[in-house]
Amino acid sequence: MMPAQVQENVMAAQVQGSVMAMQVQGNVMAAQVGEDESPGAFVGCHWPCPCEEQLRRALAESQQRLLNVVAESIDRRLTEKEAEVDYEKCRSTELEERLALLRSQSMAWQTRAIAGRAVVSSLHAQIHQVVSRPPVDER
User: Which residues touch 45 (CB under 8 Å, ≥6 apart)?
Assistant: First the structure.
């Protein structure tokens, strides 16, 4: 993993841990309140309990921070992937151009080879004619 990703993961885990701790505190507070008692009776708070509201705000803020971290991470990853796609498009274009060049060069070499074969065939026919003629008397 890249250092920035490690840092994001650590930060996200810390925020998530804080959120879970606040949820546990809220569950403990809720469990301590009896059905016949007012919600703030066990801690000496009046209803509505300001501690509960403070806890809700802290929880909401932690969740928002976590969402922001996740959104930033997603945005960064999408940007990286878009850059990779752009690079691969350029690379693909370069490779297609190279392939077209190689094909044209291949066709040129094939044309030269065919012309070379025609020359060889013509020379072979000329040699065959010379060899098959009757010898000329040089008197």
Answer: 51
Number of domains in the chain: 1
pTM value surpassing 0.85: no
For residue 69, give every residue at least 6 positions away whose Cβ sits within 8 Å of its Cβ, in sequence order, or none.
8, 11, 12, 15
Q: Which domain holds residue 43?
A: 13-132
Cα–Cα dist 68/63, whole Å: 9
In a domain, 38, yes or no: yes
Query: What's the pLDDT tens digit per position in 22-55?
Result: 665 555 555 555 444 444 444 555 666 778 888 8
Helix, strand, coil share of the chain (percent; to 5): 80, 0, 20
